[in-house]
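Chapter summary example: a protein plus pyridoxal-5'-phosphate.
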Amino acid sequence: MDQATSSELPIFAEHDNDPRALAEEILKSLTYRVGKDASVATPYDWLAASIKVVRDRIIERWIASTKEAYTQQRKRVYYLSMEFLIGRLMRDAFSNLGLMENMREALKILDVEIDVIAGLEPDAALGNGGLGRLAACFMESMASVDLPAHGYGIRYVHGLFRQEIQDGWQVELPETWLDHGNPWEFERRERSVEIGFGGTVESITSKDGRLERHVWRPQERVLAVAYDTPVVGWRGKRVNTLRLWSAMAVDPILLAAFNAGDHIGALREANQAASLTRVLYPADSHQAGQELRLRQEYFFTAASLQDIVQRHLSQYGDLMTLPDKAAIHLNDTHPAVAIAELMRLLMDVYGIDFDTAWGLTKRTFAYTNHTLLPEALESWPVPVFERLLPRHMQIVYAINAQVLLEARSRQIFDDEQIRRISLIHEDGDRRVRMGNLAFAGSHSINGVSGLHTDLMKQTVFSDLNRLYPGRINNKTNGITPRRWLMQCNPGLTALAREAIGDRFLDDTDALKELNRFASDPAFRDRFAAVKRANKERLAELVDERLSLRIDPSALFDVQIKRIHEYKRQLLNIIEAVALYDQIRSHPEKDWLPRVKFLAGKAAPSYHNAKLIIKLANDVARVINRDPSVRGLLKLVFIPNYSVSVAEIMVPAADLSEQISTAGMEASGTGNMKFALNGAITIGTLDGANVEISECVGEDNIVIFGLKAHEVEETRRKGYEPRAIIESSPELGQALHAISSGVFSPDDPHRYKALVDGLYETDWFMVAADFDSFADAQRRVDDIWRNAPDWHAKAIRNTANVGWFSSDRTIREYDRDIWHAGL
Ligand SMILES: *Cc1c(COP(=O)(O)O)cnc(C)c1O
């Protein structure tokens, strides 16, 4: 492996980063900060000691970055997100500071293997999937491109559950990432703020009877305590802050009750308060409708806004300049109540009139929409919202009155359209529509891929877009190339540096220079060797964890993401069953060995998603044991998908499965990670696949299936899956095998309802796309048969997806939305 980027980074002259000096510092840190002697230190102790040594260097940069934003009066970006799916931070920090190789050597001097201790760091899994991972990539990119930014979220004690597979079924276990402490965070008790819930609203009138202002008198109060994590940018240029809020009781113990003998009652309130931030809701692309969720949303939003307003006032003394110095970004609608909260602060606390406050609010906020799935569009029953946030309910009504007035005065909307614009859903039970609130209160609303943004304009926000034209814009998602190329694929990084120099480390567009090597046989061989080594590493992991032998020379076909019907793992599994059938009935054909990998978590309450996991495991058991397959096809379900698992699987993939029903995946970011690491995509024209296809060229991607408008048309005209299944013998046989119990002899009817659903409704159009998908897989086989051609295409993928760096995405956000002066 090549030297990392350490030596040429002229930073931290004040520290001696020589391995020997570092080794000494680590020892000192072990003694004085961890409190252990080297002779008894556990690997966890070495991990903590090493992190603290590097952390010192980060803290200096952190303070400098904070000062710089202050003295230069720079506009700050505030990124509010319910989720940050960070993963491990050690490698990120070491590598971004250019200390990776020196730390490796320093630890070697101490007889400690860096990879061993790196593997002990728990993943910070404070998110479900793509949305949370995007927030984490954005935090890293904002620091890397030198944008003063603060992330705000929740410090869940339990992040996304740990998944075990028992007898093929998903079992959820609590995730306990804080068990060994968290050396990255700093508790900031002094930044605690009080958050209210419930209670009443008092209207205060002046002597002449005019309404002066409203005072919210909450019934409950909870303390929000700040925990700060430094986020280091590439080359350590800037260190930003991720501030996560933890809930605590205002009164840790009710002394009067305790002294009166009610010992348990005296502590109940403290327990209740702390439980607010105990656990992350595990549903992805589905609204969690429970009251605790709304409490979480308001809790972190209100704490963040108090923080932002306080910081602004202490520096500038006047809230009229807030939009010039603060851009608040809403990552989906989860923090959208921030709009009502800022209005409340401006009007009720600072005495600003409604119109002025509304103008300031709209200029301050921007909102990203992440999904068009109806079940994911957030709305809250008016009675719940009103009980928990009575003042905010009044403000939402006042905003709505203003919006509807503007809509009516335009005279272009009929009653139905006005009803759709309303912030309150009025048919049946009345609900607050968080998307409409976010739209109305923001100057910018963005989608996350070109297609998604177009569909947004045509569907959910078509009326609001006509009322407020020009607000909707596109910002195609991105991924940080530090984590998703340089750290996870050191082999490919080293090879690229040798071939084209280091420029791509700072500007991924420079990867384009690799294009000329696609036709160079020597380079192709070395590229293939890197891939092979990554595949061997994954094969070892599979052997260790699942006691299953796989052949690293087989085609590694990978679909890893949340398990969801729209992502169509089912289509992939059915195709595997059909292929299994073909291999057995045509043994004479020239089949190529393939290993299909699946990984992903299902929401615990999502019945079909969990059944699909069981099906994958049932099919895997049968196929993997069947001697007549002669090892030509294997199916592997890797448990507990996470950022760290992705970091091993992505660099090892030959084929990237991005096969969602067109129009349903807003962007996807997994698709970008794979392409960057030289996998070829088999995919539908959905989300960012469309743009990946444009970047790599249609010869270097395998596209199949209905397009978004065709899905829509097919549904409109009346889709009949049964007829399609009956005309496709391969599909019919595979479905028959599944529903008749070939893979579930212990419970032959296990999959009957699942398969019946495909015959009857098949909302996600598995049947409609099956033949096209199976044909596309045979095209993949044909490319794979010609190894030099395959590797040339793979190289062209890496070379042409530099545009998907989240640095580019962040620069676009700043140019068009935040205007923080990059
Ligand atoms: C990138 C990533 C995702 C998002 O994957 P998609 O394929 O875009 O759905 C989800 N989870 C983890 C752990 C990731 O790293």
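Key point: The first helix runs from residue 19 to 34.
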